[in-house]
Every structure is written in structure tokens, then in C-alpha cells.
Specification:
alpha+beta; globular; 6-stranded antiparallel β-sheet; 4-stranded mixed β-sheet; single chain
């Protein structure tokens, strides 16, 4: 099969994608598949990359992908085109499956998933609805709460609240009075901790809110819990899995723990500082906690109709051991230091086996969807 690895994108996580996608491209089985690289620039234009770019990153384990722009290689998408949906000036790229390695906006928020659905192409990862929901931290919390799952107490502030000084002051005071300092401020639909900050007082909270609103029109204010950060890799199809189907059954892998050396696990700790955090796999938890975490991860994934893959993140309150769901990432990082492939690896699934599993699940999900009736 021909696998199109799509990377870059209009996102604050563009550079992270260049590293993640390089790791994915290196680890797709070249004896079974042909890999085509498609880079998306920061202004949203798509370009097919020369085979030399694939060979370059395969020969250098530390290399990140680049994007070369050319009028001859600019990619267009034909709705309903199926394997011929992705085209350049020279003709069809003949793609069988798309492996999007796009983080953040226009990548894991349902937008490209919708485009690929319209094109009629199988793709790795969650569908349109699940991608949109899991990108929005407020909507995810609402669904999890409705499902009876534990989430950290929060208040959501919208730009319309920011634009009305009376409403802003009321919500600001409500957050301080009901949640208490310290607080975490997060854009609802940004990833990699972009725009996230911890506030220990009212002045810091004001600055944190202004920065977060640069990234999104909705912002979460959360109770800051003195917590251990635990993560779980999950694969499978929560909607259509058949019993015993290894590609589609929902599988939760060995949990790991993030032990940051920064104030919290921010962007620098994740991607810039090699000593920004220590990754401990498996996480040092009790058997009871392990069972709870894995059960909650499966339930959280199922509640949002997860498919393909996701990383489910938890907090364990250091003061009392309470476990909370933090968030879910539908297209988690695949860099050399990323937790998702490391946790799968700890469970005995190699990076190449993981890519094969995800490609197979994408093909099965596309086939099942294609068999549904769409007209009389």
C-alpha cells in the first residue's frame, strides 16, 4: 500500500509535527508499504515532497522533516476521488491510506479528518466528531462528567465574557473564590501546553488569561492540584470493534509517569529541554491504582467514540491519592522522547508494529463506514 504521511500544518505545533512525522515515516515497514510525504506549510498549502527527503530522514535518526515548495508539487484534493483524491500537476499520488501526523489546530480538530472523509480516503486516527471533541478541553470534560468520570474542577471563560468587563470581573472572582489559588489557565483548543500557565495570585491570573486568549476564544481556569502526571496509550475502535479483533479492540497499554523538572510540564519541558522531564515507564503505582487508571482510560476513550489512537492523561492528587482525568490527545506526539510510542513499546509493541496496527485499523474502519447506507 501507499501511505501518505502528512505533516506540518497551520498550528502552533508545526515544528513538533516535523519531528513526529519523521519518526513515523522511518518506522513504517518499507517492505510492505511505499511512503509518500506531504508537507503542509504554515499558511496551509500542501506540497508533495521528493523521495530524497524520505531517504534523508531515514539515514539520519535525529533529522526533522522539512517542506520544499514548488508549483509543480502543490497538492490538490478531489472530493470523492478515493485513491486518486490527492493530486499534483503531474497527476494522482495514488494514495491508499493517509497517516496524518498533525498536532493542534487544522490537524487533530476534525478539519482534516472531514476533508479526508469527503475525499474518500482511509486515515489513521479518530474520526471527525471524536477529533473535534477531544481537541476542545471543555467539551471533553462535559462528556466525561456526563459519563460519570472524574475531572478536575474548572470554569470556562469565552471571548464574549472577556469583552464584557462586568461579566469578566464576575467570572474572575468566581474562579478565585470557588477554585482558589493556585490555578491553571489553558486555551481550550490548543495543545503542547501552548498558552498554558500557572497562576498563584490575581495579577498572574490576569496575565495568564490574556496570553491564553491569544491562542483561543475559549479558556479553561482549573483548580491546580498537587499532582503526579500519569499517561496511558490507547488504540482501537470504540464504536465498531468485533470481539477478538486485535486491530480494532480497545487496548490500554502500560501507563507511564511524567516527572517534570519545570514548574509544570510546559512546551519547553516537552520539546526543547532534554532534561525538562523524566519519563518513568511503567508508572510507580499500586495494583489498585493501575486497574483504576486503565479502566478509566478505556471508558474515557469510549465516551468520546475514540478510534485509531489516543493518549489519555491523568492526575493523581499527591495529598489524598484521588485520580482525575486531565485530557485526551487524539494525535499524540511521536517524537523520540514522546510517551505514546514509548508506552506501547513497554507493552511489547514496537514502533513499526504500532504503525502497522494503526494502518490496518484505518483500513478496516474505512471499509466499515463505506458499507453503511447513505441513500435509498
Amino acid at each position: 500500500m501507499t501511505i501518505a504521511v502528512i505533516y506540518g500544518g497551520r498550528s502552533g505545533e508545526h515544528e513538533v509535527s516535523l519531528v513526529s512525522a519523521a519518526a513515523v515515516a522511518r518506522n513504517i515497514d518499507s517492505t510492505r508499504h511505499t511512503v509518500r510525504l506531504i508537507g503542509i506549510t504554515k499558511d496551509g498549502r500542501w506540497f508533495a515532497q521528493d523521495d530524497a527527503e524520505l531517504q534523508r530522514i531515514r539515514s539520519d535518526e535525529s533529522a526533522a522533516l522539512t517542506i520544499t515548495e514548488s508549483e509543480q508539487t502543490e497538492v490538490s484534493v478531489t472530493p470523492g476521488g478515493g485513491t486518486h483524491a490527492l493530486r499534483t500537476h503531474s497527476g494522482s499520488l495514488n494514495v491508499d491510506v493517509v497517516f496524518p501526523v498533525l498536532h493542534g489546530t487544522y490537524g487533530e480538530d476534525g478539519t482534516i479528518q472531514g476533508l479526508l472523509e469527503m475525499a474518500g480516503l482511509p486515515y489513521v486516527g479518530c474520526g471527525v466528531m471524536a477529533s473535534s471533541i477531544t481537541m476542545d478541553k471543555e467539551k471533553t470534560k462535559q462528556i466525561w462528567s456526563q459519563a460519570g468520570l472524574p475531572v478536575v474542577p474548572y470554569i470556562c471563560m469565552r471571548r464574549c465574557d472577556l469583552n464584557d468587563s462586568a461579566v469578566y470581573d464576575r467570572m474572575f472572582n468566581q474562579a478565585v473564590e470557588t477554585l482558589g489559588f493556585p490555578l491553571f489557565v489553558k486555551p481550550c483548543c490548543a495543545g503542547s501546553s501552548n498558552g498554558a500557565a500557572k497562576a498563584d495570585n490575581a495579577r498572574q491570573l490576569s496575565f495568564a488569561l490574556m496570553d491564553a486568549f491569544c491562542w483561543d476564544d475559549k479558556v479553561l481556569i482549573e483548580k491546580a492540584i498537587p499532582a503526579r502526571e500519569i499517561e496511558c496509550s490507547v488504540t482501537g475502535n470504540a464504536v465498531t470493534a468485533m470481539p477478538g479483533d486485535k486491530e480494532e479492540q480497545v487496548t490500554v497499554y502500560t501507563p507511564g509517569e511524567i516527572i517534570p523538572t519545570h514548574t509544570f510540564y510546559d512546551y519547553d519541558a516537552k520539546y526543547n529541554d532534554p532534561d525538562g522531564a523524566r519519563l518513568s515507564i511503567p508508572a510507580a503505582v499500586t495494583e489498585e491504582q493501575l486497574d483504576t487508571i486503565k479502566s478509566l482510560a478505556a471508558r474515557a476513550y469510549t465516551a468520546v467514540d475514540g478510534a485509531g489512537l489516543s493518549r489519555v492523561d491523568f492526575f493523581i492528587d499527591k495529598s489524598n491519592g484521588d485520580i482525575y482525568l486531565n485530557e485526551i490527545n487524539a494525535l499524540p506526539g511521536f517524537t523520540a522522547i514522546s510517551m505514546f510510542p514509548k508506552m506501547c513499546g513497554a507493552a511489547g509493541v514496537s514502533f513499526t508494529e504500532l504503525t502497522e496496527l494503526l494502518i490496518a485499523e484505518a483500513v478496516k474502519r474505512h471499509g466499515a463506514r463505506a458499507r453503511l447506507q447513505t441513500s435509498k
